[in-house]
Amino acid sequence: MQEISEKIFNHISDLIYQEIGVHLPQKKKAMVNSRLSKRIRKLGLQDFEDYCQYLENNKQELLHLFNTLTTNVTHFFREKHHFDFLCNNVLPQVKDEKAGKKVRGWSAGCSSGEEAYTLAILLSEFFNQSWDTKILATDINTEVLNAAQKGIYHQRQVKKVPYELLTKYFQLGTGENKGLFKVKSKLKKLVQFRRSNLNQNQYPIKSKLDFIFCRNVFIYFNDKTQNKILNRFHKHLKPEGYLFLGHSESINTEEREGKWESVYKTVYQKRRR
Ligand SMILES: C[S@@+](CC[C@H](N)C(=O)[O-])C[C@H]1O[C@@H](n2cnc3c(N)ncnc32)[C@H](O)[C@@H]1O
User: Fold this and answer.
1) Residues 4, 36: contact at Cβ < 8 Å?
2) CA neighbours within 13 Å on the CB side: how many for 93?
3) pLDDT per position as a tens digit, 126-178
4) pLDDT score, position 128
5) Sheet of strand 180-183: strand arrangement
6) Of all protein residues, whose CA lies closest to atom 14 belonging to ligand 1?
7) Which fold has domain 6-69?
8) Which tens digits make up the pLDDT trace of 202-214?
9) Domain definitions of the chain by residue range
């Protein structure tokens, strides 16, 4: 198959930006070329031109396009210092303040679920059964969400989970499932997975949140998109709630002004007005 042309790359990259806010710069052209070629072959189409026509006539193909072009690398206990900060600073504060015994967190851009399940494990360890704890976990990519929902991980994926937590929260596969670890239902019921686009105005959030983890997602957005999303996050957090960003992401000083306080490495607290 011929390589993707400049014209078609720009068309796909504009479409992705408009729909999900992900910025695909020129240096991603080889990645787009290789991933889309596979999709084109799978569909039995001839070339990129054919694919654009197909996309035009089949709106549901957009879902596959997002699945193909998003990057979903993740693991359990990723950037562990954030989880230490959560357990040592955020959760004790929540425990002191909450009369209603309700805790709500959001893993935004949750990929295959490792971040959301890590959070659920920590909430479950910290709060006793009488607390109502829930993690909402959202992503745009339906393939990773299906994997998250299944909650079955290979040994290499759970290597960062401490052994006592692994045996407590995962079922160890035997026989033909040897080497696989399945999230136990007591953990699964603490996490709700939903498809949701961060680039849209409405998020599926009902109650105010104690914390949001949106890590290693902002790197794919430009400043304008990041700022729009930050304003929505601000609205959904309770006063003094926390926002965790990835290690290479931040809120610039201008945006922080009066709204966010930097309290730890790429962790921000919503200011009480
Ligand atoms: C690199 S993963 C980060 C996973 C996890 N937060 C972590 O830090 O390990 C980025 C995720 O963001 C998702 N994503 C990208 N654009 C999105 C959008 N507009 N709305 C929702 N999720 C999006 C991707 O599908 C991908 O699963």
Assistant:
1) yes
2) 14
3) 998 889 999 999 999 999 999 999 999 999 999 999 999 999 999 999 999 99
4) 81
5) 152-154, 180-183, 170-172
6) 109
7) Chemotaxis Receptor Methyltransferase Cher; domain 1 (1.10.155)
8) 999 999 999 999 9
9) 6-69, 80-270
With a 6 Å cutoff on the Cβ, whether 217 touches ligand 1 is: yes
**Single-letter amino acid code for the residue at 117:** Y
CA distances from 169 to 124, 133, 165, 187 (A): 10, 16, 6, 6
Residue 175: CA count within 13 A, CB half-sphere: 0
122 lines ligand 1 (CB under 6 A): no
Q: Which residues are known catalytic residues? A: 35, 139
- CATH of segment(s) 80-270: 3.40.50.150
Bridge partners (DSSP) of residue 195 are: 139
Res 97: pLDDT? 86
Torsion (CA) 85, 88, 93, 95 in degrees, nearest 10: 120
Q: Which strands, in side-by-side order, build the sheet including 132-139? A: 191-195, 132-139, 102-108, 209-214, 237-245, 267-270, 260-264
pLDDT band with cut points at 50, 70 and 90 for residue 1? confident
- Check if 68 has its Cβ closer than 6 Å to any atom of ligand 1: no
Mean pLDDT of the chain: 96
pLDDT at 33 (0 to 100): 98
The answer to whether 117 and 76 have CB atoms below 8 angstroms apart is yes
Using the mean position of ligand 1's atoms as its centre, give its distance from the Cα of residue 273 in Å: 30
pLDDT at 178: 94
Q: Residue 75 to residues 79, 80, 109, 167, 168: CA-CA distances in angstroms?
A: 9, 10, 13, 18, 18
